[in-house]
Design a protein that fits this description.
Elements: E1 3-8, E2 19-29, E3 41-44, H1 47-51, E4 63-66, H2 69-76, H3 91-101, E5 105-110, E6 121-130, H4 132-143, E7 149-152, H5 155-161, E8 170-173, H6 176-181, E9 188-190, H7 196-205
Length: 211
Amino acid sequence: MKVLFLRPEGSNIPYNKNFIEISILKPECINYTVNLHEIDGLGFTSINAVRCFKDFDKIEGKAIFAVGPSTSEELIKRNIKNVIIPEEYTVENLVKLIKQNTKNPLLVRSLIAIDNSLDIKQIADYNLKADLQKLEEARELIEKCKVNIIVLTSSYIASLVKDFIKECEIIVSIGPSTSKVIKDKKNIYEAKEHDMKGILKLLKELGAYDG
């Protein structure tokens, strides 16, 4: 089975002869202003949030949280130890965990993901822009049913391609927020663990991955 992965540029996907990866989003680091003096905990919602953060020299002694293992590993590369992750890898669970363990936390994420309903201080240190050429490549594959499975790794990506998806294709969603965008589609499978490892486990269950 041919599996189409739609991911932001710079994401890591294991090699498999049946995997097709198209990076339809380009992450771009942006300037931000924040006073970290009163902040006692920081939560990172993605790998790119870690890569674009410029103040690691100012967070010693603060509690550090990550949305899941992949983001945690990116923090560990920067010598950040004792990273805390929620049992279920969603932003909602991350925020809940941070609030339970800190008094004045900060969430670091993308500009398009800022959500004031979360009732937590947030900053954006990067933005995601659609690569129109890559999006057209994805549309060509999806509309003509040239792939069997489409892997959607964010709600934004899902919103960009949902109108292309046909009933001939199985949709693999990384988590609840992504699934919500495509709720009117058929053949949706949601990863139990909301990260790349969870997606690969699901693909294995579907007989599309043997790694």
